[in-house]
Design goal:
alpha/beta; Ribosomal Protein S5, domain 2; 3 domains; 9-stranded mixed β-sheet; 25% helix; globular
Length: 448
Protein backbone atom coordinates (compact mmCIF):
# COMPACT_ATOMS: atom_id res chain seq x y z
CA UNK A 1 0.00 0.00 0.00
CA UNK A 2 1.45 3.36 -1.08
CA UNK A 3 2.29 5.75 1.69
CA UNK A 4 0.05 8.83 1.81
CA UNK A 5 1.92 12.00 0.96
CA UNK A 6 1.26 14.97 3.21
CA UNK A 7 1.76 18.59 2.31
CA UNK A 8 1.40 21.67 4.50
CA UNK A 9 1.00 25.22 3.22
CA UNK A 10 1.59 28.56 4.95
CA UNK A 11 -1.54 30.70 4.78
CA UNK A 12 0.53 33.90 4.82
CA UNK A 13 3.12 33.42 2.08
CA UNK A 14 2.21 30.12 0.37
CA UNK A 15 5.33 28.17 1.34
CA UNK A 16 4.76 24.40 1.08
CA UNK A 17 6.56 21.77 3.16
CA UNK A 18 6.07 18.03 3.80
CA UNK A 19 6.18 18.59 7.56
CA UNK A 20 4.19 20.88 9.83
CA UNK A 21 6.19 23.76 11.31
CA UNK A 22 5.24 26.11 14.10
CA UNK A 23 6.99 29.07 12.48
CA UNK A 24 7.24 29.70 8.75
CA UNK A 25 10.87 29.93 7.66
CA UNK A 26 9.92 32.19 4.74
CA UNK A 27 7.68 34.92 6.24
CA UNK A 28 8.14 34.27 9.98
CA UNK A 29 4.41 33.75 10.71
CA UNK A 30 3.51 31.52 13.66
CA UNK A 31 0.97 28.67 13.50
CA UNK A 32 0.11 29.43 9.86
CA UNK A 33 0.52 25.97 8.29
CA UNK A 34 -2.50 23.84 7.38
CA UNK A 35 -2.57 20.39 5.84
CA UNK A 36 -3.74 20.21 2.23
CA UNK A 37 -6.03 17.51 0.92
CA UNK A 38 -5.07 15.41 -2.11
CA UNK A 39 -7.23 17.59 -4.34
CA UNK A 40 -5.65 20.77 -2.98
CA UNK A 41 -2.18 19.29 -3.50
CA UNK A 42 -3.05 18.66 -7.13
CA UNK A 43 -4.23 22.26 -7.54
CA UNK A 44 -0.98 23.56 -6.05
CA UNK A 45 1.02 21.44 -8.49
CA UNK A 46 -1.02 22.75 -11.42
CA UNK A 47 -0.59 26.37 -10.29
CA UNK A 48 3.18 25.97 -10.00
CA UNK A 49 3.56 24.18 -13.33
CA UNK A 50 3.96 26.21 -16.50
CA UNK A 51 1.16 26.02 -19.04
CA UNK A 52 1.47 25.66 -22.81
CA UNK A 53 4.20 24.24 -25.00
CA UNK A 54 7.87 24.78 -24.34
CA UNK A 55 9.37 27.92 -25.82
CA UNK A 56 12.64 28.29 -27.71
CA UNK A 57 15.23 30.90 -26.93
CA UNK A 58 15.64 33.67 -29.52
CA UNK A 59 18.21 36.39 -29.93
CA UNK A 60 17.23 39.68 -28.38
CA UNK A 61 17.91 41.37 -31.74
CA UNK A 62 15.26 39.14 -33.37
CA UNK A 63 12.54 40.07 -30.88
CA UNK A 64 9.85 42.28 -32.43
CA UNK A 65 8.83 45.15 -30.18
CA UNK A 66 5.12 45.44 -29.49
CA UNK A 67 3.66 48.91 -29.38
CA UNK A 68 1.81 49.45 -26.11
CA UNK A 69 -1.64 50.95 -26.63
CA UNK A 70 -3.25 52.80 -23.76
CA UNK A 71 -6.64 54.32 -23.18
CA UNK A 72 -7.34 57.08 -20.68
CA UNK A 73 -9.24 56.54 -17.43
CA UNK A 74 -10.31 60.19 -17.68
CA UNK A 75 -8.58 60.71 -14.34
CA UNK A 76 -5.37 62.70 -14.68
CA UNK A 77 -3.72 61.45 -11.48
CA UNK A 78 -4.48 57.76 -12.10
CA UNK A 79 -3.19 58.00 -15.68
CA UNK A 80 -0.03 59.61 -14.33
CA UNK A 81 0.63 56.73 -11.89
CA UNK A 82 -0.05 54.11 -14.57
CA UNK A 83 2.41 55.72 -16.96
CA UNK A 84 -0.05 57.40 -19.31
CA UNK A 85 -3.21 55.32 -19.17
CA UNK A 86 -4.69 51.82 -18.87
CA UNK A 87 -3.15 49.07 -20.99
CA UNK A 88 -5.63 46.53 -22.46
CA UNK A 89 -4.80 43.01 -21.30
CA UNK A 90 -3.13 44.24 -18.11
CA UNK A 91 -3.84 43.01 -14.58
CA UNK A 92 -3.60 45.70 -11.88
CA UNK A 93 -3.74 45.20 -8.12
CA UNK A 94 -4.71 48.12 -5.89
CA UNK A 95 -4.44 47.94 -2.11
CA UNK A 96 -4.99 50.22 0.85
CA UNK A 97 -6.45 50.44 4.33
CA UNK A 98 -10.23 50.12 4.81
CA UNK A 99 -12.13 53.31 3.99
CA UNK A 100 -9.26 54.95 2.09
CA UNK A 101 -11.29 55.04 -1.14
CA UNK A 102 -10.33 52.03 -3.28
CA UNK A 103 -13.89 51.06 -4.23
CA UNK A 104 -14.92 54.70 -4.63
CA UNK A 105 -12.05 55.44 -6.99
CA UNK A 106 -12.57 52.36 -9.16
CA UNK A 107 -16.32 52.91 -9.39
CA UNK A 108 -15.65 56.46 -10.56
CA UNK A 109 -13.02 55.26 -13.03
CA UNK A 110 -15.38 52.54 -14.30
CA UNK A 111 -18.05 55.19 -14.88
CA UNK A 112 -15.55 57.40 -16.70
CA UNK A 113 -14.62 54.56 -19.05
CA UNK A 114 -18.29 53.62 -19.52
CA UNK A 115 -19.00 57.20 -20.61
CA UNK A 116 -16.72 56.60 -23.61
CA UNK A 117 -19.05 53.80 -24.85
CA UNK A 118 -16.80 51.04 -23.49
CA UNK A 119 -18.49 48.17 -21.62
CA UNK A 120 -17.40 47.95 -17.98
CA UNK A 121 -18.17 45.14 -15.51
CA UNK A 122 -17.98 45.84 -11.78
CA UNK A 123 -17.95 42.58 -9.79
CA UNK A 124 -18.66 43.04 -6.10
CA UNK A 125 -18.23 40.25 -3.61
CA UNK A 126 -18.73 42.35 -0.48
CA UNK A 127 -21.71 44.56 -1.32
CA UNK A 128 -25.02 44.15 -3.09
CA UNK A 129 -25.79 45.83 -6.39
CA UNK A 130 -28.22 48.18 -4.61
CA UNK A 131 -25.43 49.38 -2.31
CA UNK A 132 -23.21 50.05 -5.32
CA UNK A 133 -26.13 51.87 -6.95
CA UNK A 134 -26.46 54.19 -3.95
CA UNK A 135 -22.75 55.04 -4.17
CA UNK A 136 -23.04 55.55 -7.93
CA UNK A 137 -25.90 58.01 -7.37
CA UNK A 138 -23.74 60.00 -4.98
CA UNK A 139 -20.81 59.94 -7.41
CA UNK A 140 -23.06 60.67 -10.41
CA UNK A 141 -21.64 57.57 -12.07
CA UNK A 142 -24.71 56.07 -13.74
CA UNK A 143 -24.06 55.00 -17.35
CA UNK A 144 -25.72 52.39 -19.52
CA UNK A 145 -22.35 50.76 -20.31
CA UNK A 146 -21.55 50.21 -16.62
CA UNK A 147 -22.75 46.76 -15.49
CA UNK A 148 -22.89 45.46 -11.90
CA UNK A 149 -22.55 41.83 -10.84
CA UNK A 150 -22.87 40.71 -7.22
CA UNK A 151 -21.08 37.36 -7.34
CA UNK A 152 -18.30 35.55 -5.48
CA UNK A 153 -18.05 32.41 -7.64
CA UNK A 154 -15.32 32.59 -10.25
CA UNK A 155 -17.13 30.25 -12.62
CA UNK A 156 -20.18 32.54 -12.78
CA UNK A 157 -17.95 35.57 -13.40
CA UNK A 158 -16.34 33.76 -16.33
CA UNK A 159 -19.79 32.93 -17.74
CA UNK A 160 -20.69 36.65 -17.64
CA UNK A 161 -17.42 37.52 -19.41
CA UNK A 162 -18.38 35.08 -22.20
CA UNK A 163 -21.87 36.59 -22.40
CA UNK A 164 -20.64 40.10 -23.30
CA UNK A 165 -17.35 41.45 -24.65
CA UNK A 166 -16.27 43.78 -21.85
CA UNK A 167 -13.41 46.27 -22.14
CA UNK A 168 -12.77 46.82 -18.43
CA UNK A 169 -13.27 44.57 -15.39
CA UNK A 170 -13.19 45.49 -11.69
CA UNK A 171 -12.98 42.79 -8.98
CA UNK A 172 -13.91 43.99 -5.48
CA UNK A 173 -12.22 42.20 -3.83
CA UNK A 174 -9.91 39.30 -4.73
CA UNK A 175 -10.14 37.84 -1.19
CA UNK A 176 -13.93 37.32 -1.49
CA UNK A 177 -13.86 35.41 -4.81
CA UNK A 178 -13.62 31.63 -4.73
CA UNK A 179 -13.56 28.77 -7.21
CA UNK A 180 -15.88 25.80 -6.82
CA UNK A 181 -13.09 23.53 -8.07
CA UNK A 182 -10.99 24.30 -4.98
CA UNK A 183 -12.22 23.05 -1.62
CA UNK A 184 -10.36 25.62 0.52
CA UNK A 185 -12.09 28.72 1.89
CA UNK A 186 -12.25 32.09 0.08
CA UNK A 187 -9.18 34.22 0.75
CA UNK A 188 -6.90 31.24 1.35
CA UNK A 189 -3.54 31.05 -0.37
CA UNK A 190 -4.65 28.36 -2.81
CA UNK A 191 -7.84 30.20 -3.77
CA UNK A 192 -6.19 33.60 -4.27
CA UNK A 193 -3.30 32.16 -6.25
CA UNK A 194 -5.44 30.08 -8.60
CA UNK A 195 -8.06 32.81 -9.14
CA UNK A 196 -5.40 35.41 -9.91
CA UNK A 197 -3.79 33.01 -12.38
CA UNK A 198 -7.18 32.52 -14.09
CA UNK A 199 -7.83 36.27 -14.23
CA UNK A 200 -4.39 36.82 -15.72
CA UNK A 201 -5.14 34.23 -18.41
CA UNK A 202 -8.48 35.88 -19.22
CA UNK A 203 -6.85 39.34 -19.39
CA UNK A 204 -4.28 38.17 -21.93
CA UNK A 205 -6.68 36.08 -24.01
CA UNK A 206 -9.46 38.67 -24.27
CA UNK A 207 -7.19 41.75 -24.20
CA UNK A 208 -9.23 42.82 -21.17
CA UNK A 209 -7.96 45.37 -18.66
CA UNK A 210 -8.63 44.10 -15.12
CA UNK A 211 -8.35 45.96 -11.82
CA UNK A 212 -8.54 43.90 -8.63
CA UNK A 213 -8.85 45.29 -5.10
CA UNK A 214 -6.81 43.60 -2.38
CA UNK A 215 -7.23 43.80 1.38
CA UNK A 216 -4.17 44.65 3.43
CA UNK A 217 -2.85 43.20 6.67
CA UNK A 218 -2.16 45.17 9.83
CA UNK A 219 1.47 45.44 8.67
CA UNK A 220 0.28 47.29 5.54
CA UNK A 221 0.97 44.60 2.92
CA UNK A 222 -1.51 42.92 0.59
CA UNK A 223 -3.25 40.03 2.37
CA UNK A 224 -2.66 36.61 0.85
CA UNK A 225 0.34 34.99 -0.83
CA UNK A 226 3.27 37.15 -1.88
CA UNK A 227 3.07 35.53 -5.30
CA UNK A 228 -0.07 37.62 -5.88
CA UNK A 229 2.04 40.75 -6.33
CA UNK A 230 4.45 38.89 -8.61
CA UNK A 231 1.70 37.64 -10.93
CA UNK A 232 0.02 40.98 -11.67
CA UNK A 233 1.39 43.60 -14.04
CA UNK A 234 0.91 46.62 -11.79
CA UNK A 235 0.72 47.09 -8.01
CA UNK A 236 -0.72 50.32 -6.59
CA UNK A 237 -1.01 51.29 -2.91
CA UNK A 238 -3.13 53.98 -1.31
CA UNK A 239 -1.35 56.02 1.36
CA UNK A 240 -2.95 58.40 3.80
CA UNK A 241 -5.42 58.27 6.65
CA UNK A 242 -9.11 57.85 5.82
CA UNK A 243 -9.77 60.88 8.02
CA UNK A 244 -7.62 63.12 5.82
CA UNK A 245 -8.85 64.89 2.73
CA UNK A 246 -5.78 64.16 0.59
CA UNK A 247 -4.88 60.58 -0.45
CA UNK A 248 -1.70 59.43 -2.18
CA UNK A 249 -1.75 56.62 -4.76
CA UNK A 250 1.75 55.23 -5.26
CA UNK A 251 2.95 52.69 -7.81
CA UNK A 252 5.21 49.92 -6.46
CA UNK A 253 5.34 47.81 -9.61
CA UNK A 254 4.55 48.63 -13.22
CA UNK A 255 5.56 46.52 -16.21
CA UNK A 256 4.37 49.24 -18.57
CA UNK A 257 5.91 52.35 -17.00
CA UNK A 258 7.87 53.89 -14.15
CA UNK A 259 7.18 53.00 -10.52
CA UNK A 260 8.24 56.34 -9.06
CA UNK A 261 5.13 58.35 -9.95
CA UNK A 262 2.37 59.20 -7.47
CA UNK A 263 -1.21 60.38 -7.80
CA UNK A 264 -2.77 62.89 -5.43
CA UNK A 265 -6.52 62.70 -4.84
CA UNK A 266 -9.06 64.63 -2.82
CA UNK A 267 -12.03 63.03 -1.09
CA UNK A 268 -15.08 65.15 -1.88
CA UNK A 269 -18.83 64.65 -1.95
CA UNK A 270 -18.57 63.31 -5.50
CA UNK A 271 -15.87 60.82 -4.49
CA UNK A 272 -12.11 60.71 -5.01
CA UNK A 273 -11.12 63.24 -7.65
CA UNK A 274 -7.76 64.38 -8.94
CA UNK A 275 -6.39 67.08 -6.68
CA UNK A 276 -5.96 70.53 -8.21
CA UNK A 277 -3.29 73.04 -7.20
CA UNK A 278 -1.44 70.55 -5.01
CA UNK A 279 1.67 72.75 -4.99
CA UNK A 280 0.47 74.68 -1.93
CA UNK A 281 -1.41 71.83 -0.21
CA UNK A 282 1.53 70.49 1.79
CA UNK A 283 2.75 73.66 3.49
CA UNK A 284 1.30 76.75 5.16
CA UNK A 285 2.69 80.14 4.13
CA UNK A 286 0.66 82.15 6.61
CA UNK A 287 1.95 80.64 9.86
CA UNK A 288 5.60 81.26 10.79
CA UNK A 289 6.55 79.43 13.98
CA UNK A 290 9.60 77.71 15.38
CA UNK A 291 10.15 74.07 14.47
CA UNK A 292 9.04 74.40 10.84
CA UNK A 293 11.16 74.25 7.66
CA UNK A 294 10.40 73.78 3.96
CA UNK A 295 11.98 71.36 1.53
CA UNK A 296 11.33 70.12 -2.01
CA UNK A 297 11.13 66.38 -2.70
CA UNK A 298 10.79 64.58 -6.02
CA UNK A 299 7.94 62.10 -6.42
CA UNK A 300 8.75 60.62 -9.80
CA UNK A 301 8.99 63.57 -12.17
CA UNK A 302 6.92 65.83 -9.89
CA UNK A 303 8.55 68.25 -7.41
CA UNK A 304 6.50 68.81 -4.24
CA UNK A 305 7.17 71.41 -1.56
CA UNK A 306 6.72 69.90 1.90
CA UNK A 307 6.70 71.35 5.38
CA UNK A 308 8.83 69.55 7.94
CA UNK A 309 7.68 70.05 11.52
CA UNK A 310 9.80 69.32 14.58
CA UNK A 311 9.06 69.44 18.30
CA UNK A 312 11.92 69.30 20.79
CA UNK A 313 10.86 69.19 24.43
CA UNK A 314 12.63 68.32 27.65
CA UNK A 315 12.27 64.64 28.50
CA UNK A 316 11.04 63.52 31.91
CA UNK A 317 11.97 59.86 31.39
CA UNK A 318 15.37 58.13 31.42
CA UNK A 319 15.03 57.24 27.74
CA UNK A 320 14.19 60.21 25.51
CA UNK A 321 11.59 59.58 22.79
CA UNK A 322 12.41 59.79 19.08
CA UNK A 323 9.38 59.49 16.87
CA UNK A 324 8.85 60.36 13.20
CA UNK A 325 5.70 60.40 11.06
CA UNK A 326 6.35 60.25 7.33
CA UNK A 327 10.12 59.94 7.82
CA UNK A 328 12.43 57.01 8.54
CA UNK A 329 12.93 56.72 12.31
CA UNK A 330 16.38 55.15 11.97
CA UNK A 331 17.59 58.04 9.82
CA UNK A 332 16.19 60.47 12.38
CA UNK A 333 18.32 58.85 15.09
CA UNK A 334 21.37 59.18 12.83
CA UNK A 335 20.72 62.89 12.24
CA UNK A 336 20.25 63.50 15.97
CA UNK A 337 23.55 61.80 16.74
CA UNK A 338 25.19 63.99 14.09
CA UNK A 339 23.77 67.14 15.71
CA UNK A 340 25.21 66.17 19.07
CA UNK A 341 28.62 65.31 17.61
CA UNK A 342 29.16 68.10 15.08
CA UNK A 343 27.08 70.98 16.48
CA UNK A 344 27.35 70.01 20.17
CA UNK A 345 23.61 70.36 20.70
CA UNK A 346 22.70 68.29 23.80
CA UNK A 347 19.62 66.41 22.63
CA UNK A 348 20.07 63.28 24.77
CA UNK A 349 17.77 64.74 27.43
CA UNK A 350 15.08 65.90 25.00
CA UNK A 351 12.18 64.20 23.27
CA UNK A 352 12.23 64.79 19.51
CA UNK A 353 9.16 64.43 17.29
CA UNK A 354 9.13 64.85 13.49
CA UNK A 355 6.08 65.17 11.25
CA UNK A 356 5.79 65.52 7.46
CA UNK A 357 2.60 67.40 6.60
CA UNK A 358 0.09 66.16 4.05
CA UNK A 359 0.46 62.44 4.79
CA UNK A 360 3.39 61.95 2.39
CA UNK A 361 6.15 59.54 3.38
CA UNK A 362 9.59 60.82 2.41
CA UNK A 363 11.70 58.08 0.86
CA UNK A 364 14.63 60.17 -0.37
CA UNK A 365 17.45 61.88 1.52
CA UNK A 366 16.99 65.40 0.07
CA UNK A 367 14.99 66.40 3.16
CA UNK A 368 17.86 65.77 5.61
CA UNK A 369 18.88 69.42 5.70
CA UNK A 370 15.29 70.54 6.36
CA UNK A 371 14.96 67.98 9.18
CA UNK A 372 18.06 69.39 10.89
CA UNK A 373 16.89 72.97 10.36
CA UNK A 374 13.49 72.25 11.90
CA UNK A 375 15.05 70.49 14.92
CA UNK A 376 17.47 73.36 15.59
CA UNK A 377 14.64 75.86 15.12
CA UNK A 378 12.50 74.10 17.71
CA UNK A 379 15.40 73.62 20.13
CA UNK A 380 16.32 77.32 20.03
CA UNK A 381 12.69 78.48 19.65
CA UNK A 382 13.51 80.62 16.61
CA UNK A 383 11.25 80.66 13.58
CA UNK A 384 12.53 80.14 10.03
CA UNK A 385 11.25 82.27 7.19
CA UNK A 386 8.70 80.54 4.95
CA UNK A 387 10.52 82.09 1.99
CA UNK A 388 13.43 79.66 2.43
CA UNK A 389 13.80 76.02 1.40
CA UNK A 390 16.43 73.53 2.57
CA UNK A 391 17.59 70.93 0.03
CA UNK A 392 20.47 68.55 0.68
CA UNK A 393 21.56 65.12 1.87
CA UNK A 394 23.54 64.95 5.09
CA UNK A 395 26.30 62.36 5.43
CA UNK A 396 27.60 60.72 8.60
CA UNK A 397 30.72 62.89 8.56
CA UNK A 398 28.69 66.10 8.50
CA UNK A 399 28.95 66.98 4.82
CA UNK A 400 25.91 68.24 2.92
CA UNK A 401 25.75 66.61 -0.50
CA UNK A 402 23.86 67.61 -3.62
CA UNK A 403 20.74 65.79 -4.78
CA UNK A 404 19.43 65.07 -8.26
CA UNK A 405 16.96 67.36 -9.98
CA UNK A 406 18.07 70.48 -8.11
CA UNK A 407 17.11 72.84 -10.94
CA UNK A 408 13.60 71.36 -11.15
CA UNK A 409 13.16 71.67 -7.39
CA UNK A 410 14.28 75.29 -7.32
CA UNK A 411 12.03 76.15 -10.25
CA UNK A 412 9.03 74.76 -8.36
CA UNK A 413 10.02 76.71 -5.25
CA UNK A 414 10.29 79.93 -7.26
CA UNK A 415 6.80 79.38 -8.69
CA UNK A 416 5.53 79.40 -5.09
CA UNK A 417 7.21 82.76 -4.43
CA UNK A 418 10.05 81.28 -2.40
CA UNK A 419 13.17 83.41 -2.97
CA UNK A 420 15.88 81.73 -0.83
CA UNK A 421 17.37 78.27 -0.97
CA UNK A 422 20.05 76.56 1.11
CA UNK A 423 21.70 73.93 -1.08
CA UNK A 424 24.94 71.97 -1.23
CA UNK A 425 25.95 73.20 -4.70
CA UNK A 426 25.14 76.00 -7.10
CA UNK A 427 22.38 75.06 -9.58
CA UNK A 428 23.35 74.55 -13.23
CA UNK A 429 20.66 76.88 -14.51
CA UNK A 430 20.31 80.50 -13.50
CA UNK A 431 17.44 81.18 -11.13
CA UNK A 432 15.85 84.38 -9.93
CA UNK A 433 16.14 83.24 -6.32
CA UNK A 434 19.07 83.56 -3.95
CA UNK A 435 20.99 80.35 -3.34
CA UNK A 436 23.30 79.89 -0.38
CA UNK A 437 25.88 77.12 -0.30
CA UNK A 438 25.79 74.95 2.82
CA UNK A 439 28.34 72.17 2.32
CA UNK A 440 28.69 71.40 6.05
CA UNK A 441 26.06 71.10 8.76
CA UNK A 442 28.03 73.52 10.96
CA UNK A 443 27.06 76.34 8.58
CA UNK A 444 23.42 75.85 9.52
CA UNK A 445 24.05 77.71 12.77
CA UNK A 446 24.65 80.90 10.79
CA UNK A 447 20.89 81.02 10.07
CA UNK A 448 19.75 81.19 13.70
Amino acid sequence: MAKKKTLFECQHCGLTTPKWMGKCTNCGAWDSFIELSEHQQEVVKQAKSTSGSSAKAVSINDVVEEEIYRFSSLDIELDNVLGGGIVPGSLTLIGGSPGVGKSTLLLKVGANIASTKKDVLYVTGEESTSQIKLRANRLKSNHDSLYLLSEIRLEQILVELEHRAYDFLIIDSIQTIYSENISSAPGSVTQVRQITFELMRIAKEKDLAIFIIGHITKEGSIAGPRVLEHMVDTVLYFEGDSSQELRILRGFKNRFGATSEIGVFEMKAEGLVSATDIASRFFNRNSQQSGSALTVVMEGSRPIILEVQALVSESHTPNAKRQATGFDNNRLNMLLALLERKLEIPLSGYDVFINITGGIKITETAADLAILAAIISSFRDRAISKETVFIGEVSLVGDVREVYGLDVRLKEAKMQNINKALVAKKPLEKTLMKTYIVDEVTKLLEWY
